[in-house]
Amino acid sequence: MQNAKDSFYMALRTRLTAINPERTILLRGAVRPGILVEEAEASFSQLPNDVFVLRWLGMAVDMDLGSAMAAEQCEVVYQTCGAQSFGGLDRGRALSAMDEELLAMIQPFYTPKLNYAAAPPAAMLTQVFWDEPVFAPAVVRRDRLSRSASVMVYSYQEQGE
Q1: Percent helix, strand and coil across the chain, each to the nearest 5
Q2: Helices then strands, each counted (H, E), the chain
Q3: Whole-number Å distance between alpha carbons of 84 and 73
Q4: Whether 129 contacts 109, CB under 8 Å
Q5: Residue 12 CB-density burial (10 A; 0-12 exposed, 13-18 middle, 19+ buried)
Q6: 92 near 79, Cβ under 8 Å?
Q7: Start-to-end CA span in the chain (Å)
Q8: CA 70 to CA 74: how far, in whole Å?
Q9: pLDDT given for residue 139 in this prediction
Q10: Alpha-carbon span 129 to 134, nearest angstrom
């Protein structure tokens, strides 16, 4: 499932760069698009603001098909304090903007599966596809608004995976 997870992340990252190139994060001295995979980064004491964080939760495999299909739930978590210039009073608008960006990144609901262990990434035979996101209610924590969205990601297992 690692190739599917990597392909899903890279598809969202590429789409975010096209949708909002200004949503970035400075991480380990490098400016990157404002989306990251929690398990691939050093642990945070607190999630970064104005960044999409992908968390992989649970996995299942359906062996009753011609090829094994794996599914893994991805939770996308994000939060904002709003803009300092507005004293954070625009945090609702900022969260809504991130909701819209996530909806735009998710579509279309598929991407080619690539093997990112190779350089350059090698195309595989199948696609990665996913369901529509399910948004949780916004949560208020002092000066922050946060939300999570859950997406089920699917992929057929290929030879050697």
Answers
A1: 25, 40, 35
A2: 2, 10
A3: 34
A4: yes
A5: buried
A6: no
A7: 7
A8: 13
A9: 96
A10: 15
pTM: 0.92
Residue 108: count other Cβ atoms within 10 Å of its Cβ: 9
Distance from C-alpha of 103 to C-alpha of 29, rounded to nearest angstrom: 29
Structure tokens at 12: 């969202």
Backbone phi, then psi, for 9, in 5-degree steps? -60, -50
Place of tokens 């200004």: 22
Lookup: tokens for 156:
């057929």
Detail the DSSP E strand segments found in 34-143: 35-37, 52-62, 69-80, 110-115, 122-130, 134-135, 139-141
Per-residue pLDDT of the chain (161 residues; tens, 9 = 90+): 999 999 999 999 999 999 999 999 998 899 999 999 999 888 888 889 999 999 999 888 887 777 889 999 999 999 998 777 766 678 889 999 999 999 999 999 999 999 999 899 999 999 999 999 999 999 999 889 999 999 999 999 888 77
Residue 87, pLDDT score = 65
